[in-house]
Amino acid sequence: MTELEEAMTYFKNDRYAMETTGITIDEVKTHYAKCSLKIDNRHLNANDYVMGGVFFTLADFTFAVSSNRGSERTVTTNSTITYLGRVKGDTLISESRLIKSGGTMCTYEISVRDNLGNPVALVVTSGMYVKTA
Question: Is the pTM of this model over 0.85?
Answer without folding.
Answer: yes
